[in-house]
Amino acid sequence: MTAAVEPTGPVVPDAPAAALHAEGIKVQFGGLIAVNGVNFTVPNGGIVSLIGPNGAGKTTFFNALTGLYKVAAGYVLLGGRDITGLPPHRVADLGLARTFQNIRLFGLMTAEENVKVAMHSHLKSGVFGTVLRTPRQRREEKEAHETALELLDFVGIGKTAGEYARNLSYGDQRRLEVARALALRPKVLLLDEPTAGMNPRESAQFTEFVHRVRDEKGLSLLLIEHDMSVVMRVSEHITVLDRGEKIAEGSPEQIRTNDRVIEAYLGTAGKESGA
């Protein structure tokens, strides 16, 4: 079988040296423009949050970055490599992993098995090696088992390795999703509403965990998050979308006091009334 030729995309000599960079991203569904000309950068080793009111285009933008949605205009660079138009599995193979707003686990597989699924693209034994149980296949199977347990320990749910995913608590399912994403060996990790459904204690713990992922795994992280207390604690840089367009970006303090951001979240009337 001939390997597929990987698209190289346009040469962008002035593109920033960044973990992830999007330029002029436009996503359109028929006559509806869901994301309009957004420029966005995640620096190497950075923790960046993408926020905005409901319907602002945040998840649509995530889906465009990861190849789930077709980009009508613009391009996406991952570590300087053009990944625009690649299918999601190729984007993941190249180092851009994500979790989802709605948890997507295999409920009737164990926590360990859920993590192992993500390792498939890195295994080299193939079908014949698996059927014949070659020494290489047995070695890879042992390594996958050890790696899965290490990742489950890292995210704090090591004791659940043999439990079905559907039986885990909501917070542990969120952590299992992160472990599975880390099994892809990403360079950039995208977290979509990672603290949704968590109580304040779990949210605070997750904030600390995000910094551990960056510091110990050497990743860059991009979050969509509605809990503003989490956003302000975890983010080094924040970008704000409203109605598919970028309206502000800056440090947490700059965003907290930005008039356009306040208006987008509260509305002009709310702002004037001091709400």
From TrEMBL:
It holds the Pfam family BCA_ABC_TP_C. One of its GO terms (molecular function) is ATP binding. InterPro entries: AAA+_ATPase, ABC_AA/LPS_Transport, ABC_transporter-like_ATP-bd, ABC_transporter-like_CS, BCA_ABC_TP_C, P-loop_NTPase. It comes from the Bacteria. CDD domains: ABC_Mj1267_LivG_branched (cd03219). Keywords: ATP-binding, Nucleotide-binding, Transport. Residues 20-268 form the ABC transporter domain. This is ABC transporter ATP-binding protein.
